[in-house]
Design brief:
Helix content: over 70%
Radius of gyration: 19 Å
Shape: globular
Distance between the termini: 39 Å
Number of domains: 1
Largest sheet: none
Number of helices: 11
Strand content: under 5%
């Protein structure tokens, strides 16, 4: 087998080892998953049901609950992934980062593995949102290829925002600053997107911001794939292209910044 192919396989295999370590941590602390499941419950059952009754938000030929469900799934992915960088700060304080950097594992594998680990947690949120959506009558698309597409979008979205979170952690280095910046950034990402209302009703300047927000394309793809009558405003090709491109860029930046985690 070609050495380049072997090198690529080895690169991704080592990244998946990092993901496996994170999954083991998650299995030993299931309470975190339960606590995070509360958030989509509140948004769908309280916010969603109330605004569905007002009929104040134009959502075309689908109900507001149908419109909202993909947005809340994307929000759950964002909120889980954006605080993933905290684990790097903990690992630095415990000396684990130094051991990783001293190992023969490529820095790119470390960065990709840590970024992908957010996807494992995010996929559990997808199960919660799907169950809730089914209970409240959202018309879901159960086509196997659509479900596979949803899984891929969640993985891309979680990896993207986990990588962004890691970059913040590498730059600020302290838990207090990281938590403060993370909390400040989640709301603009969420509200400056099409998660809970169409971009068309935003003021012009916010529409520009929303179109530059990767969460918008994640929501757009989820809305097209999750819903029985779902459509994509930008086209699934554009949605996936934006998510893949931004993910590659952010993971590449993580690769170069990773040694800073040990200082």
């Amino acid at each position: 087998m070609n050495s380049a192919i072997l090198g690529t396989i080895n690169f991704f295999r080592k990244a998946l080892v990092i993901v496996e370590l994170e999954i083991r941590k998650m299995r030993h602390d299931a309470t975190e998953l339960l606590m995070r499941a509360v958030q989509p419950v509140l948004w769908l059952l309280l916010f969603g049901e109330v605004f569905a009754q007002t009929h104040a938000i134009p959502t075309g030929n689908i109900s507001y609950l149908d419109f909202l469900a993909p947005g809340i799934l994307a929000q759950s992915v964002l909120f889980i992934a954006i605080f993933g960088g905290m684990s790097v700060i903990w690992e630095r304080d415990l000396g684990i980062i130094h051991k990783f950097l001293a190992s023969p594992t490529p820095r790119g594998s470390l960065a990709l593995g840590k970024s992908l680990s957010g996807a494992a947690r995010a996929l559990t949120q997808a199960v919660v949102v799907y169950i809730l959506a089914l209970l409240i009558g959202v018309k879901l698309n159960w086509n196997p290829f659509a479900l596979l597409g949803v899984v891929i979008v969640i993985i891309l979205g979680a990896t993207l925002f986990s990588a962004f979170s890691l970059i913040i952690a590498f730059l600020v280095r302290t838990r207090e600053r990281f938590m403060g910046i993370g909390q400040v950034l989640t709301m603009p990402f969420f509200f400056a997107s099409n998660a809970i209302y169409p971009i068309s009703i935003m003021p012009p300047w916010l529409q520009v911001v929303a179109r530059g927000n990767p969460l918008t394309y994640e929501v757009d793809a989820l809305r097209a794939l999750m819903l029985e009558n779902g459509t994509s405003a930008y086209g699934l090709g554009m949605d996936f292209a934006v998510l893949v491109l931004v993910t590659v860029v952010l993971v590449t930046i993580c690769t170069y910044l990773y040694p800073r985690a040990a200082t």
